[in-house]
Amino acid sequence: MSNYFVIHRPSNSIINVIASSVEPTSTDKYKFVEASEGRLSQYYARRQYNTPIDLYSIISKPTVPEILPLSSDDMESLNVYVSKYRHRETVERMSYVWRVSERTIRDVLKAL
Q1: Domain annotation covers residue 63
Q2: How far apart are CA 13 and CA 19, in angstroms?
Q3: Is 85 in contact with 94 (CB distance < 8 Å)?
Q4: Cα(106)–Cα(112) distance, rounded to whole angstroms?
Q5: Mean pLDDT (whole number) for 22-26
Q6: 3-state DSSP assignment of residue 103
Q7: How many domains does the chain have?
Q8: Do 32 and 79 belong to one domain?
Q9: Same domain as 80, residue 53
Q10: Any long-range contacts for 33-37 (C-beta under 8 Å, 24+ apart)?
């Protein structure tokens, strides 16, 4: 059996801990995150203070890479975006919005 944190989605607060042999199904209101023994110990130590416990105070927040790989469909969409906004936005802004390198944006601009 594995332990799972029951997380209230809107607040990211841990509501409870459950044990289940199968992974519970998340809903619009609650999601379930597997809890290791170390994470459970942290949870129970903080629980004694009777304050809401944010999930990301116990586990590390997932990081989004700064530069994302593009599929061929994404590359086509990027070409359309750059051609539409090249006169209104900077290369830096377009690369930030699309999470691609500035070099990728410059390559698209050269191809136009």
Answers
A1: no
A2: 18
A3: yes
A4: 10
A5: 92
A6: helix
A7: 2
A8: no
A9: no
A10: 33/4, 33/5, 33/7, 33/59, 34/2, 34/3, 34/4, 34/5, 35/2, 35/3, 35/4, 35/5, 36/3
pTM of the predicted model as reported, rounded to 2 decimal places: 0.56
End-to-end CA distance of the chain: 57
Q: What is the pLDDT of residues 68-107, one digit of tens each?
A: 788 889 999 999 999 999 999 899 889 888 888 889 999 9
Rounded distance, CA 39 to CA 58, Å? 6
39 part of a folded domain:
yes
Full domain range(s) for residue 104: 72-111
| 29-68 confidence digits (pLDDT tens) | 999 999 999 999 999 999 888 888 998 888 887 676 667 7
SS3 state at 18: strand
Mean residue pLDDT of the chain comes to 89
Altogether, the residues listed in the chain come to a count of 112
